[in-house]
Specification:
With 363 residues, this protein is mainly alpha-helical. Helices cover 86% and strands 0% of the residues. Its main location: membrane.
Length: 363
């Protein structure tokens, strides 16, 4: 009896330790749950590519590095292109607005910056009562510094999330078989567990790979369509930023219910506003809207979703419902959590729940 009690006590201690470790991991992941779920989405979406590269190269580290680069580089290119566009707009603003008055106020301070006399600069800005900055200039400087600080914080947050996504994705792809083998050995290769995990994994791969395919195909078609429209359209350029708009259109296909319409409908409204204030022809926004609706939005979505419906064991309507409800319930991270919950629920209902009810009835 004493030995039995000691065994129970030891098992309870190990269970408490496991719960404590799991709790720490959950708390840590909760802080960056969005990056973690995005990495899970990318893992299932890029797993077929990784397997093909690994089979061809026979070098897991190289294959997973190339796979991660295929995902991360386009994100960096989109962000970099957006920054370039913003800098061009800023340059045009500075070129068209006279800054001589501001330069006259700022010239003494800029000279101190060039000479690295930061202590003197601080005295002039804050403590010097003899040459204070005019109130208007102080307000402008505070506003500019506030915006720069906000943008810098946003850029840092995005880069941090992207770094975490890359790390998660790298190890998910490279070491997934180790986790799978450990789990199957832990449950003694229980047939029901193995079948359940395999079905969930296959359907998540189909759903998420299909979504990534929709993003890539729609974005590529959008860029090509907008360049073609600019080339054949008389009377000037229809789409001023075809690459950025096309890529954003592809990425927006992830947004539940509205999809890429959240991009091209506002741009159509912007073009309509341009026709009212400039000599831009009225047919520009009309042709842009119709071409985007038919060629970019409807046709790729129909064929790719039909292909997904033929391959997936989960109804596409349920998957779309998972995207919508997940986003409404959990925010942007629910965009990736929703489909996971749907797939788990469907296969639990098909494979596990009937057996549980049958066993309870037999008892």
């Amino acid at each position: 009896m004493g030995q039995f009690d000691r065994l129970e006590f030891g098992q309870a201690v190990w269970m408490l330790l496991g719960i404590a470790i799991g709790s720490v991991i959950v708390v840590g992941l909760t802080t960056y749950i969005g990056a973690f779920l995005f990495a899970v989405f990318l893992y299932f979406a890029t797993r077929p590519l990784y397997h093909r590269l690994n089979a061809a190269l026979d070098h897991p580290n190289l294959a997973v590095t190339l796979t991660v680069l295929v995902v991360v580089l386009p994100m960096l290119l989109v962000a970099g292109y957006a920054v370039i566009i913003a800098l061009q707009e800023l340059n045009q603003f500075l070129a068209t607005h006279p800054l001589d008055g501001i330069r006259a106020y700022l010239q003494p301070y800029l000279g101190l910056v060039r000479e690295r006399q930061f202590q003197r600069l601080w005295e002039l800005l804050v403590t010097n009562p003899e040459q204070p900055l005019p109130p208007a200039a102080r307000r402008v400087i505070r506003r500019v510094l506030g915006r720069v600080s906000t943008i810098a914080g946003l850029v840092f947050a995005v880069l941090t999330q992207l770094f975490l996504v890359s790390i998660f994705l790298f190890y998910f792809l490279r070491d997934d078989y180790k986790v799978r083998d450990w789990f199957f050995e832990s449950v003694d290769h229980d047939k029901r567990v193995v079948e359940f995990v395999a079905k969930v994994s296959n359907d998540l791969e189909t759903v998420f790979f299909g979504n990534l395919a929709i993003i890539a195909v729609s974005g590529g078609i959008a860029v090509l369509t907008y360049y073609t429209l600019n080339f054949v359209a008389p009377g000037g350029t229809v789409v001023s930023i075809p690459v950025l708009l096309g890529l954003l259109t592809g990425i927006a296909t992830l947004i539940p219910l509205v999809g890429m319409k959240i991009v091209y409908i506002p741009y159509t409204a912007l073009l309509l506003g341009t026709t009212a204030t400039t000599e831009t022809p009225l047919w520009h926004p009309l042709v842009f809207f119709l071409v985007t609706l038919v060629i970019v939005d409807t046709i790729p979505d129909f064929f790719i979703r039909s292909w997904l419906a033929a391959r997936s064991g989960v109804h596409m309507g349920l998957v779309l419902l998972g995207y919508a409800l997940g986003t409404l319930a959990f925010g942007w991270s629910g965009l990736f959590l929703g489909p996971i919950v749907v797939v788990l629920t469907v296969h639990f209902g098909h494979s596990i729940f009937p057996r549980l009810v049958s066993n309870l009835s037999a008892d």
